[in-house]
Design a protein that fits this description.
222 residues; Rossmann fold
Length: 222
């Protein structure tokens, strides 16, 4: 059984989870395979450790959010950004597990695109980098981001750590069979500036959330 401490008692934690959806027209959208299970497990674990938890959850995440946390459901990357900014100032810790779209569509159609009209002329624009924003605007908050890397894993995570000015990047390799999107188990590597990378064994997302908080607590002040 998992040993849970109350080391987050009195702390305010914001967690993002799940995918975002960028509309093409009123019925179609661009999204990704994120299930939200890892973020939900982290939010629940933070609550079990005594934190006051706000979960910002992308529509399309699987199942129900944990009952122990306050949940806000968002759809687009822009909505997720607004929600994070709203709750960031007053939190002690932000954990960004959501798979936020890097691109949105500048000209979503007002009505359903018809096949006979031909290929839609879709224009893309980059979405805001929410993790980088948090890294730039934090005062005393600890900030943890997740990175999905399919090549040069460690190098990519270490680059992200410095560029985004965060405390930790949690590296997830979706090419591993046990780390498939939507699965119940995962293999994570914790990358931080103050110590060598910590490779967690393959375990359930619930166990991974527990181990993650064992490693995050050193970044929380007071």
């Amino acid at each position: 059984s998992l040993v849970v401490t109350d080391d987050l008692s009195g702390k305010s934690v914001v967690v993002t989870s799940g995918p975002t959806r960028e509309p093409i027209d009123p019925v179609r959208f661009v999204s990704n395979r994120s299930s939200g299970k890892m973020g939900d497990a982290i939010a629940k674990q933070a609550a079990l450790r005594g934190a006051n938890v706000t979960l910002i959850r992308g529509r399309g995440a699987e199942g129900e959010p944990p009952a122990e946390v306050k949940t806000f459901v968002v759809e687009t990357a822009a909505e997720m950004s607004s929600a994070v900014k709203e709750h960031f100032t007053s939190c002690n810790l932000l954990v960004m597990t959501a798979a936020v779209s890097d691109w949105s569509i500048t000209n979503p159609a007002k009505s359903k695109l018809k096949k006979h009209v031909g290929e839609p002329g879709i224009q893309w624009k980059q979405t805001e980098d929410i993790l980088a924003w948090a890294g730039q605007n934090r005062t005393a908050q600890a900030v943890v981001g997740f990175a999905l890397e399919t090549s040069n894993h460690l190098e990519g995570a270490q680059k992200k750590l410095k560029e985004k000015n965060v405390d930790m990047i949690v590296l997830n390799d979706p090419t591993q069979s046990h780390s498939s999107f939507g699965g119940d188990s995962t293999k994570l590597t914790l990358v931080a500036n103050d110590k060598a990378p910590v490779e967690l064994p393959v375990c359930t997302k619930k166990e991974a959330a527990n181990k993650l908080f064992d490693n995050i607590s050193r970044f929380l002040q007071g």
